[in-house]
Design goal:
By secondary structure, this protein is mostly helical. The protein is built from 21 helices and 18 strands. Helix 4 runs antiparallel to helix 21, helix 5 packs antiparallel against helix 6 and helix 11 packs parallel to helix 13. The chain is globular and about 70 Å long. Bound molecules: 1-deoxymannojirimycin (DMJ). GO terms for molecular function: calcium ion binding; mannosyl-oligosaccharide 1,2-alpha-mannosidase activity.
Amino acid sequence: MALIKRYGVYLAIAAFFIYTLYSLSFPYQPEGNPIQNDNKDNHKNGNKDKESSKSPPASKSYNWAKVPINYPVESMVTLPTGAPAPLPKIQHAFKENEDATAKNIRETRREEVKKAFEICWKNYRQKAWMRDELSPISGGSVDTFGGWAATLIDALDTLWIMGFREEFASAIKDVESINFGSTPMAMINVFETNIRHLGGLLAAYELSGEQRLLKKAKEVGEMLYRAFDTPNHMPKTRWDFQKAGAGEKQTADQAALVAEIGSLSMEFTRLSQHTNDPKWYDAITRVTKVLEKEQDKTKLPGMWPIVVNADKSDFTLDNSFSLGAMADSTYEYLSKTYALLGGLEPSYKKMYEKSMATAIKHTLFRPMTPDNADMLMAGFVRVDDSVPTLAPRMEHLVCFAGGMLALGGKIFEIPEHVTIGRKLTDTCVWAYKASPAGIMPEVSHLLACANTTGCAWDEKVWKDSVAAKADLGTDKDPLQNIANLRLPEGFTSIEDRRYILRPEAIESVFVMYRITGEQQWQAAAWDMFTAIQQHTATDLGNAALLDVSAENPPKQDSMESFWMGETLKYFYLIFSEPNVISLDDYVFNTEAHPFKIPKPKA
Ligand code: DMJ
């Protein structure tokens, strides 16, 4: 018992520390920030940001392929051999002859998305080239992920898919010049480097066949491989690059976010497949084996908690579970890695089925909304004394789950998952529509029905829940106070009102469209795109928003690389012909980089 108490305190501290780190990477700025609220006064911000825009000095440079390994593995797990098994058909059987009017509308919309991308690309090239991000209001630039041109690498395959072939070709020589052996940053986020840089380079290589990109992917792979050089071969997640480069011994983290441990399998598998070097597949298989071993031992068997002890390979201590932030892509990668391995590694299927059975049972709730729509959302579960309690939380990040379940339902032929995927995606589309800006907030809570089969809208119940939660006290006019909270009907609180150009909602809408062929998803996508463009577009690109519940949301001088790598790519693809990056041929990594699914020989 004393041990449990000690671990409980330790975990709480570790979780708080990690959550703080996570929040710091997406800092909230108050509404009154003049940088955001006075776009006319940009020159001031420009000056300020330009100073901070100077490239910081780079560190010593390491040739990662030659940095000695402290804990070599005794034997290597190799890629499964044999002919890939055929996957069931994923995409809807689209008609060859598209109606002329529908085609015209679709193509016009696709071109609008392309134009938005082009503005961002040109300004990134002109004002922030080789830096991680363009600051879309001031025209400054920042380094957030190693200083290795994150936006350039993240956007490469989007360039290719959108047909900007000259820009693609002319960018390659600059990609070649990126030095992954050196960084001005103290710590490297292994997960982000993996999904953005390694994923981006691999997908751009696959699409173009350009060997120089595979060479760069290998360089990133050599670097990331050193993060696995720990006694138990579990990776460091926030990684001291300099110490590792100097050959210092390292141990895996005692408190790591499960998403940062569990979302390396697609890229590492793919790198081994392309290089015929098994070491990356070996590295990731060691993590997969721990996930498999721990899956039934956690406080919510079937799912893994948000914080895990990688150093002890113990994933059983934390009591928080979610399909959303800090866990998300661990679940996403199960079905997709299965597909990438040609269906030859059954453990990914088993883990998908078990984890989704638990998630469906414990994390889903039906929101109570004025139109009584039959929808679902995935919330946040805490387990105390073996009793799970579900909080009806909604994150923008969790909106990927609709697409994940719909795709998993197709891959593994589980129709119920496709139905649930649709209902989850419906809630995200509804949340966009319900918000005054037409864009859903980053984090909120909804009013949940008592069960997932449904309940009728009750305005009084909603208002009472809002009042109780907000502790509106004994003010004379509690209803006016509710209005001041600026909550759309059905929302009980909004904890984070930002929209930081995230892709998850359009990602699921895109998957639902390709799987069902229903035009309603294109219509929903267009509403989302027009709202996002209306509020986020700047002269130089698109900016994150601070408050989507304001009619004119104030902007933040930030444009993460996933806007061009991921969000705009999904918007473009939903208005493209369905055979462009077909879901029958590709799986997307969690940063929307498409990898080709191996097929059996005809
Ligand atoms: C992206 O980097 C990836 O989609 C990741 O899985 C989650 N966070 C961002 C986008 O919101």
